[in-house]
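Sequence in, structure out. Go.
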Amino acid sequence: MSRTVYCQYLKQEAEGLDFQLYPGELGQQIFENISKQAWGEWQKKQTMLINEKRLNLMDPAAREFLEEKMKAFLFEGKDVEIEGYTPPSA
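Output:
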């Protein structure tokens, strides 16, 4: 049985995550307010950021950087700027 959330990223009802994928209070906020689809979009952006900036996820500063980008992307409607990446034109 899938759960539905009002996704703050998509601004509509959508299928929610099956379980909390991120720790702590922020993880709870994501679980309650972000859809599976939006989380998937973020995962793609996050992968591009990690690759582009050669982030070491063992580094607390790198994790903090990603968390800031994630909050801005999921909750503030800010797209992630990937230097040197041109999205395919629709």
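Check: DSSP finds three helices and two strands in the chain. The beta strands are 4-7, 12-15.
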